[in-house]
Amino acid sequence: MHHRTKLIAFLVWPLIAVAISFATHAHAFVSQILFLGVPSLMLALLAPRYVLKVTVFTIVFVPLWLFVEYVMNSTGQWYAISVFHSRFLGNIAYDAITWFFLAQFYIIMFWEYFFESHHCVKIWRPRMTPLALTLFAFLLATAGLWLWAPYILKIPYFYLVLTLAAFVLPLVLELRAHPKLLHRFLKVGAYFTYVFILYELTGVALEQWYFPSTKFIGWVQLFGWRFPFEEFISWILIGSMTCLAWYEHFDDDER
Predict the structure, then answer these.
(1) What residue numbers bound the domain in which 45 lies?
(2) What share of the chain is helix, strand, coil (3-state, %, to 5)?
(3) What's the pLDDT at 118?
(4) What angle do CA 208, 10, 15 make, to 5 degrees?
């Protein structure tokens, strides 16, 4: 199958995911599989040689995501409905971890399959070692604060801080150092803005997640549903490009 035909399939699938989600009033976990799991599986079948590399990279970032999830839930910045009765560390939905894995996997596999052409796939690059150690230490620090000083993790306007520090700044730095990546990043960003806006509206409409806090800089309202401005910037608009900025800097060739 030609690349263009495959790309059309990836453009159509999110619309099918929306239709199925609304027709079945899908649980958050079901929509997660529809929007992220199915295309991730398709890409894994199309480009199996990248699967291990992308999986390893995504797992390395799980400690950072656990910190983000804990603070976001503790401060009411968001609250995801879970299929599980218990939660990790008391407030992190286990399926939020699978959501993070699938979202990262989907973005990077899409990038590798449609926009890269590596002859040799390196599973682990030297920059990954200090990154992995730093993120693991970060997880230990978070666990320590959770046990002895949980009030420190209740960071006001955390979503804004996260957007600027973990999304905007890394993306700007990577594109400033490697401006040739911009054109391809924008193409990937346009695709995932389309996918994630459909997913966001579906999730909010079906009450798969909430934003209980008022500590946001503003709201975006579409078709009667609203979500924080920070959500629009960090996840929908630049989330995929920021993911690729981290990936290219630490685990790829930045070309």
Answers:
(1) 3-251
(2) 70, 5, 25
(3) 67
(4) 45
Other beta carbons within 10 Å of 72: 22
Residue labelled with tokens 């993070």: 100
Instruction: Report the DSSP beta bridge partners of residue 225.
Output: 222
Tell me the pLDDT band of 121, cut-offs 50, 70 and 90. confident
Tokens linked to 41: 């599986």
Separation between Cα atoms, residue 237 and residue 239, nearest integer Å: 6
Q: Which of 239, 214, 237, 233 is nearest to 75 (CA)?
A: 214
Q: Which helix (H) or strand (E) holds 203?
A: helix 182-205
Looking at the 3D structure of the chain, how many domains does it have? 1
Residue 121's identity, in one-letter code, is V
Residue 225 token pair: 């549903």
Q: Give how far Cα 19 sits from Cα of 34, 184, 199, 235, Å.
A: 10, 30, 11, 22
Say how far apart CA 160 and CA 95 lie, in whole Å: 24
pTM, whole model, 2 decimals?
Answer: 0.94
In a 13 Å sphere around the CA of 238, the CA atoms on its Cβ side amount to 19
